[in-house]
Design goal:
heterodimer; A: alpha+beta; Cytochrome C3; 3-stranded antiparallel β-sheet; 3 strands; 17% helix; B: mainly alpha
Chain lengths: 158, 136
């Protein structure tokens, strides 16, 4: 079903900046900027977003992004999965804190977007598609909303 | 029956979403998550800024900018201007000639096609809610 989705850049075919239509080709500084292919080609591939599996890239040590400007601070990782059961006809959602805390601070989500208490914050696909809730990141920078089964992956017991 | 209908609706929604997301609003086909910042640039006669998330997340986790530096998760929601940057706020926390290139390299950040509106390029919001991408 989702094979009809053709992202702007197909895996391994990142457009150079001078051909992406967003950068001004008359800019003399353009040739000094790194091209996406140069940075991304050696990272684990994905079929959506930047065509990079950013989580794997970090897990495999291929990238080691800093947790603070100086790089002196270690991230505070929380290894806690949350099962969201009320997903109507869709598969249930499993939310992994671990991968999220590898990139983010608790305060990025709590309590502006989500209350600490499990189940206390209503979440809907309508809000997410509108760039709210999970959609603040997913559909903008984190993997896009075409990837339903990355969140909705837990079958209900019959 | 009701369950079948529900499943059908879910599949239909997914199909519509896929179709909508497959159609870029403009000609530009830059990287997912590239942010165009054009709150002041056009009016100031300089190219809009293209901020590549992909480049920055190789080097920094999201929290560094979005928690420590105070960038809100909202396109256009941050009042970033050159005065603040030169004063060490926002981009200026790194782009000071020590961690990253300094502000005299205007062309490196101000690299977008003039007239391109503020947007998160390739985002769902851009494609479904507020289509933008073609020059004004």
């Amino acid at each position: 079903m989702l094979t009809c989705y053709q992202p702007a850049a197909i895996a391994g075919k990142w457009l150079p900046l001078e051909k992406d239509g967003l950068h001004d080709t008359s800019n003399p500084g353009l040739k000094l900027l790194q091209s996406p292919a140069e940075a991304l080609a050696n990272l684990p591939p994905d079929n959506a977003g930047n065509q990079v599996n950013w989580h794997k890239a970090m897990e495999q040590g291929l990238i080691n992004p800093r947790s603070s400007l100086s790089g002196a601070k270690e991230p505070e990782i929380l290894d806690l999965d949350i099962l969201m059961e009320d997903t109507r006809g869709a598969l249930m959602v499993l939310f992994p804190h671990k991968v999220h805390t590898q990139w983010l601070d608790c305060e990025n989500c709590h309590e502006k977007l989500f209350k600490y208490e499990t189940g206390a914050t209503p979440i809907s696909m309508g809000d997410i598609l509108n760039g709210e809730s999970c959609g603040v990141c997913h559909g903008a920078v984190a993997f896009p909303l075409t990837e339903c089964n990355r969140c909705h992956k837990i079958p209900r017991e019959q | 029956m009701a369950q079948k209908l529900h499943k059908g609706l879910v599949l239909l929604s997914v199909a519509c979403l896929s179709l909508l997301l497959s159609t870029p609003p403009g000609d530009a086909q830059a990287e997912y998550g590239d942010v165009v910042m054009n709150k002041y640039s056009d009016d100031a006669g300089i190219r809009p800024v293209v901020f590549p998330h992909w480049f920055h997340r190789v080097r920094f986790r999201c929290k560094v900018c979005h928690a420590d530096l105070g960038f809100k998760f909202e396109v256009g929601g941050n009042d970033v201007n050159m005065l603040k940057i030169i004063d060490g706020e926002y981009c200026g926390a790194c782009h000071n000639g020590e961690i990253a290139w300094s502000v005299e390299n205007c062309d490196f950040c101000h690299s977008g096609v003039p007239g391109t509106p503020t947007q998160v390029h390739e985002s769902t919001l851009q494609k479904l809610i507020k289509p933008a991408g073609a020059p004004k």
